[in-house]
Design brief:
The protein has 314 residues and is of the alpha/beta class. It folds into three domains: 146 residues, P-loop containing nucleotide triphosphate hydrolases (Rossmann fold), CATH 3.40.50; 31 residues; 91 residues. It has 14 helices and nine strands. The strands form three sheets. A five-stranded parallel sheet has the order 2-5-8-1-9, with helices on both faces. A hairpin with a 3-residue loop joins strand 6 and strand 7. Helix 1 crosses helix 2, helix 1 crosses helix 3 and helix 10 crosses helix 12. The longest helix has 15 residues. The radius of gyration is 24 Å and the shape is elongated.
Length: 314
């Protein structure tokens, strides 16, 4: 059950419990950073491979704190107009035309102050998070897909939680957002950005934690089958794939196996359900070639070599 967005957690354990209630299993380091983000009011940079639950952490924080989630999905070429705000030029033009059509004295045109107001402002995610009167969780997703110029634009927002609009002046946050920036580590981010953030590295969870995550989201799966699934997923992730299976796809596979009535992952079951976890044609061939011969020898007592922070997706 979500808590009041004004409630400040007293300990990392309290944050971990709240995230668990929101269907996200956080390890100690994740719970600590999420706790510090709320107590210190600092943004968090979450890095790690794709599919380990970075975005889901922001969603879980939104659910567990009762805050609205405001998401900015980054991409190459993203500019201020799409991230911060832009003026509704069509509405401004209509306002000017409407004023002119009233027959008023042409010597008194519509003033700049009349069309550069909140009524003509189109709020984009960053502006929405700052101007929102209620506390929010701001997710700046895949910041590494933007350029350094965009990072520089973020510095004022991340330092003081304020935005300067030349026509209107400075707009400051009335409530303090919880800010998460995610990165797949595809490029090195600037030191100036990193200095303003707490840092969290998320990796694929270890075997026991991933089994726990899968059984949380697919409670009908047998424990032995969940262990078998995680072992096979681990073998698949060891291959040189374009896209290794994410935690969310492992959960989807577990649900698929339940619907198939599978009690084990044999060659037939694996081939029939392979597209649930593999999404590239060349990866399908590689996985079929490398994994199918090993299915008979896969053991539910295997281990996952990852020691990174664990995550859960919903």
């Amino acid at each position: 059950m979500a808590v009041s967005p004004q409630t400040v957690p007293e300990s990392p354990e309290e944050v971990a419990d709240a995230l668990r209630e929101a269907s996200y299993l956080a390890d100690d380091s994740t719970a600590l950073i999420a706790f510090l983000a709320q107590r210190l009011g600092k943004p968090v940079l979450v890095e790690g491979p794709a599919g380990v639950g970075k975005t889901e952490l922001a969603k879980a924080l939104s659910r567990s704190t009762g805050r609205e989630l405001v998401r900015l999905q980054c991409y190459e070429g993203l500019d201020e107009a799409k991230a911060l705000y832009e003026w509704n030029y069509r509405k401004q033009l209509l306002q000017i035309q409407a004023a002119a059509s009233t027959g008023e004295d042409d010597s008194a045109p519509v003033g700049m102050g009349e069309i550069f107001t909140e009524d003509f402002l189109l709020e984009r995610p960053l502006m929405k998070a700052i101007a929102n009167p209620d506390p929010v969780v701001l997710l700046i997703d895949e910041i590494d897909k933007t350029d350094q110029e965009f990072e520089a634009m973020l510095l004022e927002l991340l330092s003081d939680f304020q935005i300067t609009i030349p026509e209107m002046g400075q707009i400051s946050a009335t409530t303090h957002p919880i800010v998460l920036l995610t990165s797949n580590n595809s490029r090195e981010l600037t030191e100036a950005l990193k200095r303003r953030c707490l840092y969290l590295w998320l990796d694929y969870p270890n075997r026991e934690r991933e089994i726990e995550i899968i059984r949380l989201h697919a409670p009908d799966i047998d424990e032995a089958l969940a262990g078998r699934l995680v072992d096979v997923i681990d073998m698949v992730r060891e291959l040189d794939l374009k896209k290794p299976p994410s935690i969310a796809e492992a959960i989807d596979w577990a649900r698929t196996l339940i619907l198939m009535g599978a009690s084990d992952i044999d060659e037939k079951t694996f081939r029939e359900s392979l597209s649930i976890i593999i999404k590239h044609r060349t990866d399908l061939d590689l996985v079929a070639e490398k994994i199918v011969p090993r299915l008979g020898g896969a053991s539910s007592n295997g281990s996952n070599g990852s020691n990174g922070g664990s995550a859960s997706t919903g």
